Amino acid sequence: MIADDLLKGAIDLHIHGYPAIAFEAYTRVEDLEIAKLCEEVGMRGFVLKSHIWPTVGRVYYLRKNFPGIQIFPSITLNLTTGGLNPVAVESAAKQGAKVVFMPTWSSANDLRRGGASTYLKEYLPSIKALKPQDGISLLDSNGCLSHDAKSVINMAKKYELVLATAHISTEESLALVEEANKINSWPVIFSHPDSHTVNASLDDIKLMASKGAYIEFCALGMFPAFQRIHPRDVVKRIQEIGAQHCILSTDFFFHWAPPPTEMLRIIVGTFLELGLSEEEIRYLIQVNPAKILRLESIKEII
């Protein structure tokens, strides 16, 4: 099957492992099973993400068990890791982290819009006390990028780390990518702009792409429990923006979601049915993720 073949060499830049929040917050498969499945279908690798802790320790042991696949740790700059904390970023980098996710559940934007913070409250009641003004913003009182945000971006440049906007607002994301461009810190991922938390307009998405950001589309957002955007609309956006500016990840999470390899296969097959070419899909899951991680890329095919 074509979709199965396209998974060979694919890299998923956004997979949540287990446990990540609390033992009660189940996922369909755990870290070892995720790595085993990715290896079995011939994927090149994946990035392991957590909303709470850096995934460096977990990936260290995963790599020992699965030397045939490239697994990359990350850090998410929530309150649990000290927020916009360059020391935490540096330590993560020195333990192999490749991706720095901006705040998710503890971003001021997420708390304001009721995103992941709403889900986490079910398992971590202490989050209920957080108000949007308690959340993390990349902007200061003048609407400019804060000193702490600039420190994190500079640390990412120093260690050649990928920056992902996560759950911050579109305004913050634009400020981030502009600063990254200014100091030649590349690349930036504009995380799931179609999500309820980010809610970026098509013009915003095009603007981010024009500034060099890679636009992320997540399989999770196209599955029935959310379906915040129909796959048909995603295909139209990819064709309008250009596949060379986009990536497809799974954002695997929740107990009801299929394993990430199956999520990816389903959406790849759906995209093929809806008119995306094999070449465009290779950009989404092979070429661009390899570029973003600064890996030796496969030959470009468009």
Q: Key terms for this structure?
A:
302 residues; three-stranded parallel β-sheet; TIM Barrel; alpha/beta; single chain; six-stranded parallel β-sheet; 12 helices; 9 strands
Question: What can you see in these coordinates?
Answer:
The chain is α/β, with parallel strands linked by helices. The chain has one domain: TIM Barrel. 39% of the residues lie in helices and 12% in strands. Strand 8, helix 10 and strand 9 (246-249) form a beta-alpha-beta unit. The radius of gyration is 18 Å and the shape is globular. The model has no long low-confidence stretch (mean pLDDT 95).
Could you give a quick summary of the protein structure above?
The protein has helices spanning about 1-5, 30-40, 55-65, 85-95, 110-115, 115-120, 145-160, 170-180, 200-210, 230-240, 260-275, 280-290; strands at about 10-15, 45-50, 70, 75, 100, 160-165, 190, 215-220, 245-250. With about 300 residues, it is of the alpha/beta class.
